[in-house]
Write a structure and sequence with these properties.
The protein has 82 residues and is mainly alpha-helical. 61% of the residues lie in helices and 5% in strands. A two-stranded antiparallel sheet has the order 1-2.
Length: 82
């Protein structure tokens, strides 16, 4: 369940956030612990996406994953990259 104020993010948003946090860390504007928490959460999100892709492949389907812009029409591209 998402918060009413939560913005639906995609992979580009996550990359931007990670890059911004690295810059903040280099500029000493944040703590290593905070950046570690962000990267840990990111890893967990990406693990669920990977799991969804693997499950769909197992059952012979292509998932629709807005997070990484997979819409079910690019099945051949997904299979070729495995």
């Amino acid at each position: 369940m998402s918060s009413p104020k939560a913005k639906k993010m995609d992979i580009q948003d996550v990359r931007t956030i990670l890059a911004e946090e690295i810059i903040k860390l280099r500029n000493e504007e944040t703590t290593p612990a905070y950046v570690n928490a962000i990267t840990n959460a990111t890893g967990k999100i990406l693990s669920t996406v990977k799991m969804e892709i693997e499950y769909a492949k197992l059952i012979g389907q292509t998932p629709k994953i807005d997070f990484i812009k997979i819409d079910g029409k690019k099945k051949k591209q997904i299979e070729d990259k495995s």
